[in-house]
Structures are given as C-alpha cells and as structure tokens.
Amino acid sequence: MTKKILLRKSSDLPCEEAIFTDMGIILDSGYELNDFRISFKSYGTLNNDKSNAILICHALTADQFVTNNNPITGKEGWWSNMVGPGKSIDTNKFYVICSNVLGGCIGSTGPKEIKSDTKSPYGIKFPTITIKDMVKVQKILIDEIKIDKLYAVIGASMGAMQVLQWIIDYPEKINNSIHIAGALKHSAQNIAFHEVGRQAIMSDPNWHNGNYLIKNTKPERGLSVARMIAHITYLSEEALHRKFGRKLQSRDLVSFGFDADFQVESYLRYQGSSFVKRFDANSYLYMTRAMDYFDVSEIFEKNMNFNTENNDHIHHCVISFTSDWLFPTNENKEIVKILNRTNKKVSFTEIVTDKGHDSFLLEETDFYKTISGFLNSNINGRL
Amino acid sequence: MTKKILLRKSSDLPCEEAIFTDMGIILDSGYELNDFRISFKSYGTLNNDKSNAILICHALTADQFVTNNNPITGKEGWWSNMVGPGKSIDTNKFYVICSNVLGGCIGSTGPKEIKSDTKSPYGIKFPTITIKDMVKVQKILIDEIKIDKLYAVIGASMGAMQVLQWIIDYPEKINNSIHIAGALKHSAQNIAFHEVGRQAIMSDPNWHNGNYLIKNTKPERGLSVARMIAHITYLSEEALHRKFGRKLQSRDLVSFGFDADFQVESYLRYQGSSFVKRFDANSYLYMTRAMDYFDVSEIFEKNMNFNTENNDHIHHCVISFTSDWLFPTNENKEIVKILNRTNKKVSFTEIVTDKGHDSFLLEETDFYKTISGFLNSNINGRL
User: Fold this and answer.
1) Which of A44, A297, A366, B268 has the most CB atoms in a 10 Å sphere around its CB?
2) Superfamily assignment of B5-186+295-382 in CATH?
3) Predicted ipTM beyond 0.95
C-alpha cells in the first residue's frame, strides 16, 4: 500500500492546518478507513530538539481551537483561560497542538465529510469510532510532525479518555500525562444520558436516518434537546441553584404557560440553539458512542503491571472536581489507585468547586495552579 | 351560580367513579374553569363516623389506580405493595381514596378532554394548573363524600407537594400528613430536566402546537424522550450501576453501531415506549409545569407560625431516601426544620437505600414500617 501523507496549510478549511492521508487504517470495529484528514491547530513554537510539545485532547463537543479566536464561533477558544503566553499552559514555553478528533465535524474526517468513492457525505455510513481510533490518528499526526516524544498529553472528559488511551497504546511517546475529570470506563448513568440525547436526534424527522445533508436539512431540534440534556449534566445542582435558582426571566410573575419563565429554561434553550449552529448531529452520535464504548479498566491495570519498561518513566497527574457528578472523584481515584499500586509517579488533586463537570472550562485558581505547577516542576527536571 | 355536583359510577370512563360539576372555580392563573370532572378510585370501607379516610395524592405520571388491577395498563396499581388488606396502608382499617389530578389524563378534566363549549379537545388551550388547583378540587371531592376530616393525606414526589398544599390550605381537614420525597420548592436542576422534557415533546412535529388529537396523531417520540430523561432522574447512579452496569443486551460484543448495545439503553427505550401508550403528552407538559411553579417556602413557614390554631393538631411524618438526588434529604429536612421550629408534631425518617427517588415505589422494608408505624400509632391514639 502506498503511504501518502500531506501536511499542509489549507485555506478552504476551518482547520488551517491538516494532514491528509490515503494510508489505510484498520479501526477498532474492523472497518478499513482508506483515506482521512486530521485537522489541527498549533500554538507557540516547537523547540529545536522538539521536546516542548504538548498535545491537548479535546472533549466531546470542543475542537482544535484551544485558544485565541475560534473561526467557527467567532469567540475565544474553549481553553483560552488556560492556554496562552504566560498562562498555566504557557505557549511561550510550550508548543501546544490540538487536533479535531476523528469522527468530529471541524475539519477532520467525520460523518459530514464527503466519502471519496461515493462523492456523498458519509452520514450514518461512517464507521463507528472509538477513543482508541482517535488516539491512533493523533499518533500518526504527531509522527508526521516528527515529534519523538510529547512533553505532555492533557485532556479533560472525553479528552481524559484519550489521555488514558495514549498511556496504554503509546507510553513511549509521552513524558507526562494530565488526566482531568475522566474515568476508566463510562458509567451506566452516563451511557443513559447519552442514549437519550441520541434518541432525541434520531427521533427528529429531519434526521432522515442520518442522510439529512443530502436532503439539505438538519435535525436541529433533536440536536438542541440532546445538548440541553447534556448541559444539565455538565453543571452541578449547587451551580444551577447559585446561578439561577428560581429566578424569572425578564418578568415579575410567571406566565402561566410554556414560555421560558425561569432563567434556567431560557439559558438551556440558548445553549441548545447556539450549539446546533456549530455542531453536526451525526458527529454527536458518533462521539457519544465512542465515550459509551470506552472501558479500559482491565487493560489499563494490566499494562501498568506488565509493560513497566515502557511506561515507568511517565509522570501522571490526575485531577477531579468535588461537584462533578458526571465523572465523580471516586471514578478518577480508580486511576490513581492503579497507578499507585503499580508504583508509578502520580499526583492527584481534587479541586473544591461547586461548578460541576464544566469546572475544567471555568475559572478555578487551584486548578490552574495544579496544571502549571505540575508542568513547571517537570520542566525544571527535564526540559 | 348554580352549584351542581354529580357523584356517580361511570362505566364509560376508566375512572369508575367520578364527580362532575358545573360549579365554576377560579384557578391560580385567574382562569375560570366552568365545569370539570374529577375521577377517583376508593379501596376499603368508610366507617360510620367517616374518620378512617386516607387521601393518597399521586405523583407526576401515576393515577388513581393505587392498588389491585389498573384497567389502563392491565397491571397492578402503582402502590399495590403499600396499599391493601394487611399492608402498610391497610384497607381493612382504612378507606383509601385517590383521585386523578386536575390536568391529568386518566378520567379527570385535562388537556385531552373535550371542552364543553367548543366540542373539541382543550389541547394547549387548557389552563395552566398549579398544585394548589389540584388540591382545591380534591377538597371539593372530599367534601362531596361528606368526609369532615381526613385521617391522613399521603403523597410522594408531586404527591408530596400536594400534601404540603393541603397543610397550608385546608389544615382543619386533616389529622395526619405523610410527606415522602418532596420539597418546599422545585429546584433549578429539576426545572431544567422538566424543561428539556417539554422541549422534546414540543419539538416533535406530531405535537402540532398541542393540537395533535384533532390531527389524529400523537407526539410519541418526543414524549418517549421526555420519559427517558425523567426516568434517569428517578434512579440513582448506584442503582443503575448495580442493575445494569455496562452489561450488554442479548449480545457478547458491542455492535459498533447505534443499536441498544447496553442493557441500560434497552431498558430506557422500553420505559419510553411503554409510557406513551398510557400517558397524554399535553398532560405531561401541564403536570411538569405545575411542579416547576411549586414554591411554598414562604407561605408554609408563615402558616405554621401564625395559623397555629388551625394546624397545631396535625401529626406530620416526613420521609426521604438517601440516594434520591431529585428530592434530596436536605430539601425534605427544610420542611422538618420549619415544623420543629414552629413546635409541630413531626417525625422524620431518612431511609437508607440505593434505589433513588423511585424508592417510594419499590420494596423497602424500613419504608413500609415507617408508614405503618406512623399510621397505627395514631390509630391507637385517635381512631
């Protein structure tokens, strides 16, 4: 098989940078993906010995636009309070790279992209993607940039799942790992919430069995409901109470009807309607499925026990948030337990906050300090 | 205004017994409901001095068929493990009555019923109903049966809200109250989950702005999604983990697709599809709205403080469940605090269980003992 990889700037894509390849890869499902594109974005400068690269793995609905302007939304990147010159992940020191995951919808090959042989969008014929598949193509990208070893791989939520998969599959490629608000396996409750979101999308007649793009429509209402459900799980009850409580929206009295009387309703409707502008519904199906399928509880412990020559060098940092009920502290601690009982270098911090799972996106001083402290202490030692 | 109330057996209704009235009532919203029907079901025998009547207030999607066969579903009534001869709520001793709430869909006047002047279903033109309105018509029913004083009023969840409303509005009509898994006000998180459910229904094109009945269709997919969302909140993470975990449904390996691979998905889909057979979508909108609007936090404390001559006699029992995250113990305790600081007779029990909010429907020995103990100790004193 001819292997052809093109790394190029692209002006016709939101991604700005991308690799295109016709190198076939076999996915977890057994499907052979013959050609694909991985779009990415980088910040800072790769140093001469290519030892300062940090790979950020994004979460379910995020993208490669970690910081600065996001050309899709016109807003700041999702982690702009964390990543930048002088920030906790300091782009004066580090070369930060983030790629849109395989199956995503911001420039990487996913269900909304045109399949080369049929000249039609994949739609629901896109192969099922796993976290392992996402990491497999990230590895191809990192190899292509000729980075021998990542200074760190960092991710929260679905990104944290990718971090664990990196540790399992390519431990020799990473020096440090930062795992934020994740778990060794997706819980029954989380699968349940995802399934309801999927049903909301697939129940929308505009979904057309996944073929909405060729029908020139989109299942916006279903996707909006899916986003609203998910959004509740990203917050905590305390945060919702503090932020909204039972406060009314632009009125003094309830309307005795089905308007968005309460601020929390108005907020959720906004979250739903703004999401559908930037995200592909089929991609949402595939991403949630990848998370549901994720379960490395056995393989992770096995690898930590037996592949020690490959992974003993990694410094691990695991972070959880007290009010995160989607990926609660006890699930994050399972990872720490395994790392401790296999004698790995691991630090663990539980950040006290009432902001729920979304804490990783929000201002949390202790959280910033934990990340910068971990990265800088390792800089002193090895960079 | 002529007041006409008919109490009669009805063979053409699922309710078996109902009152029909053209006595107009003014609802909380200001709407004048000129005629309405309240269907109910009773068990056991009313004693001569009519002192053994217990009113059970049902929850969001339940109905008047508390025990024995439910003619709508063909299954056992929703509280058949609690209510019956020799059971915790003993129909050998008590006359148990339960009415379908106003706005419901099992025989009482609600959005699917025909409006007398237009000869067409109310649909979304049905007036908004509050918990106070539900209790107001229950009071009319109780008066009609010539019960001067209820031995007890009992309810869980939305039923518990009705119990609080009874204590506020008609304290002179009740001797005992049992409040299970409720709160003084619906929380922001609970409003949020309800709002997503409503959006799922209203996004279904078959909803037709609430006029689906005259279009001879039903928003079944939207209602099913709404039920699935709600159902997750009725369970606990522990219960989902214990019951399903990541177990697969009728297969050894994942399908790499969007089938219900996991048992929890299959279970939720079943919950959704079976619910739409028995429940009206508009009624679901009105019931959830009534719960969202519920907030008696100020009036309850005020009444307990100042209307003491009317309510001092009531024995209160408040029950919560450790794993209930919809109506958590701390919210139930707010009621107990007020009752204690206003020197009322109140007992409080937190049942240790991993079954979540739905514990009130499930086998919980401690729960049964708490109910029967409370009811019987009061029997000894006063019946």
Assistant:
1) B268
2) Alpha/Beta hydrolase fold, catalytic domain (3.40.50.1820)
3) no
